[in-house]
Write a structure and sequence with these properties.
254 residues; 2 domains; 4-stranded antiparallel beta sheet; 6 helices
């Protein structure tokens, strides 16, 4: 099996969808893999979504570009967000039919979104997998208000649909304060990746930018959202692993 560069997550997603359709009832398949369009109440966060985000993301960037022979072991991650019904058994059964399943390890991750008491004045965000942000200024720049808004909205939407409910925060106030944060370093490059739809035969771009950006300002209240976005992904095509970020504190009072 050859995982072409940038395609490992898409390959796993395709295998998962194909097998889930065969081994689960229509209701479970739709709930896990093709959730219906949401109706979000006013003030609950982002609105106008055409579809619910899926309750999982695949983490398989380590497989990109690898060629595996029969019997070669490999591993990947799967982040599940539906705390009411994570459906872990369905994922396990599906992947066990696709390959010889050696083991499944799982743990719970909790990210506290409360503003920290520690002062943070400079951070570095690494865009580890191709990232595409709506309203981004282009490949050469990722303005902090855009990054923060996309991370905040994704976390709030997933929490609304699969968790304890929408974030009870001042969305507008948070956005206004984020505008005071400045980009002081930006080293990004574009990665071109395409996927072919098995259903329509059409090809779609699933690439984006990778690299690092550094920001300065009063950052303490924003860092938890970026740390949560490490698990949820940020931007488009998060399901197959795009938009994975890592945030490092460069200057704080800690």
């Amino acid at each position: 099996m050859h995982f072409h560069p940038g395609q490992a997550g898409n390959v796993l997603r395709g295998a998962l969808g194909s097998i889930l359709r065969k081994i689960t009832c229509a209701e479970d398949y739709a709930r896990i893999f093709e959730p219906v369009s949401p109706v979000l109440s006013a003030g609950a966060g982002p609105s106008g979504l055409a579809d619910w985000p899926r309750p999982f993301v695949i983490r398989a960037a380590s497989l990109d570009g690898q060629a595996l022979r029969p019997g070669d072991p490999f591993s990947f991650g799967l982040n599940l967000f539906n705390i009411r019904d994570p459906a872990l058994e369905h994922f396990t059964r599906a992947f066990a039919q696709w390959a010889h399943l050696v083991s499944v390890e799982h743990s719970q991750v909790v990210v506290d979104l409360s503003p920290g008491s520690t002062r943070v004045s400079r951070i570095r965000v690494e865009f580890q997998t191709p990232t595409e942000l709506k309203a981004a200024a282009g490949v050469g720049s990722v303005e902090f208000p855009v990054l923060l808004a996309r991370a905040r909205d994704r976390v709030s939407t997933l929490r609304s649909l699969y968790g304890a409910g929408p974030l009870e925060i001042d969305f507008r106030g948070l956005a206004e304060r984020a505008r005071s944060v400045k980009t002081v370093r930006c080293e990004l490059s574009r990665v071109a990746v395409e996927r072919r739809s098995s259903r329509t035969g059409q090809r779609h771009g699933i690439g984006g930018f990778i690299g690092i950006a550094e920001y300065e300002g009063d950052l303490a209240e924003f860092v938890p959202y970026l740390q949560a976005a490490h698990w949820t992904g940020v931007g488009r095509h998060c399901t197959w692993g795009n938009g994975q970020i890592h945030t490092e504190l460069l200057n704080s009072d800690f």
